[in-house]
Amino acid sequence: MPRAYFAERLLALFTTRERAAAIVGDLLELHCGPAGFWLAVIRTTWALSWRFALGFLLAAAAEFCTFFYVSPWFARLHGTDPLAELSGLLFTLFAAGTVFSLVRFGTSDAITRLGAALALLAGLDYCFWRMPLMRPATLAMMALVILLSCRTRLGRFALLRLLGSMVAAAAPLITLIYWFAKATAARCRNGCNLDLRTDPVIVVIPIAFLLSSGVLAGLLDHYKKGRSQVA
Amino acid sequence: MRLTRFLEKALDSDGHFIYVVEEMISSLGEFEQIVLLAILRLGQGAYGVAIRSEIMKRTDRTPSTGALYMTLDRLEEKAFVASRLGDPTPQRGGRAKRYFSVTRAGVEAVQRAQLAYRSLLEGLQLLGGAHA
Questions:
Q1: Residue A216 — φ and ψ, nearest 5°?
Q2: Residue A6 domain-assigned (yes or no)
Q3: Which of A25, A47, A149 minimises the CB distance to B70?
Q4: How large is the ipTM?
Q5: Do the chains contact at A24 and B95, CB–CB below 8 Å?
């Protein structure tokens, strides 16, 4: 039955293969006509996928906004040092991960809470690192959050998945932004009026954020499947 | 005071801080309760189509298949239901049924929710007589 095969492949994009097959079996039992069957398939696919799609788009927007608007605003205010730059990058990635997890898994999920706590602490360090005792306090709090997470299997699993996703999402972001900076610098070695708003090279920026958020969303979504085995 | 009680309760349980907090926060929504009760009523034969039919028969609501599967997945994530695959059948194009059963945690969650309802109904005369 080709319609069942295609429906199963479509649903398997958003759930496991076995679950997709069971859902299609149920839909075959429920709906006799092709129109009713496909309507049910589309509605089920939508129900399974809208949180992922929305979470991915909002994570990309959060990553873009923290990278280009929030972080530079505080950098102008307080300046940065190498550790603050790292905190800024962590803030960007944790914020994006938290936004995705919030939409996809909800407020009670371990990744959402862990990501929000780490994003807040990394953001505090990046924005207010010049304030006395701010850096030791944020580092101590980060260590405490990580320590508390490590006390349970579920917490350790969430922490590892979050950190792994952050590293994987950072790779395309850093690579493309570095390439972009190098490409624009090479073209204007002797100084020029490069208008980035009209230059085709600007297309790299949204690609970098979409790619990074895609990696982040894909890996965090994969966490959902593993979590039920851990819990 | 509330926060202290909350933390005491959370930290008492073998130090499973995150798990306990997660469990405390994850309360049951109305549809989740309906689905859990339908699975309990069906016993061994609770799979997607049967659960949907039971809900339609008992509540006069027609849940969409998407909403039902999302709820079942969410309940499984919360460890309130467990699922297993049955044998493939020719009527379903050789596809296996996914059977659901309510776990102990799921039964306790339903009981908690129902007790809360009963407590709120106590003394009210909504259905012609006072609820005990």
A1: -60, -50
A2: no
A3: A47
A4: 0.73
A5: yes
The domain B27-121: what is its CATH number?
Answer: 1.10.10.10
**What are the tokens at B114?**
């129902």
Cα–Cα distances in angstroms (integers) from residue A155 to residues A73, A109, A138, in the given order: 34, 10, 20
Q: Would you say residue A168 lies in a domain?
A: yes
Strand partners, B83: B100
Q: How far is the alpha carbon of A6 from chain B, nearest alpha carbon, in Å? A: 13
Domain boundaries, chain B: 27-121
What are the pLDDT digits (tens) for A17-69? 888 999 999 998 886 688 888 998 999 999 888 988 999 999 999 988 888 77
The C-alpha atoms of residue A36 and residue A44 are separated, in whole angstroms, by 12
pTM: 0.72
Rounded to whole angstroms, how far apart are CA atoms A63 and A56? 10
Q: DSSP secondary structure string, A41-90?
A: HHHHHHHHHHHHHHHHHHHHHHHHHIIIIIHHHHHHHH---HHHHHHHHH
Q: What are φ and ψ of residue A215, in 5° steps?
A: -65, -45
DSSP state of A193: -
* Contact partners, residue B80, CB within 8 Å, separation at least 6: B28, B32, B36, B102, B103, B105, B106, B109
Of B15, B79, B93, the CB nearest to A1: B93
The whole domain housing A128 covers 50-230
Angle of helix B30-42 relative to helix B104-121, nearest 10 degrees, comes to 120
Q: Is residue A231 within 8 Å of residue B79, measured between CB atoms?
A: yes
Q: What's the structural domain count of chain A?
A: 1
- Residue type at A76 in one-letter notation: R
Q: How big is the CA angle at A168 (ends A121 and A66), to the nearest 5 degrees? A: 40
For residue A21, the chain B residues in CB contact (below 8 A) are 95-96
Q: Tell me the C-alpha distance between A64 and A208, whole Å.
A: 10
Q: Write down the mean pLDDT value for chain B.
A: 80
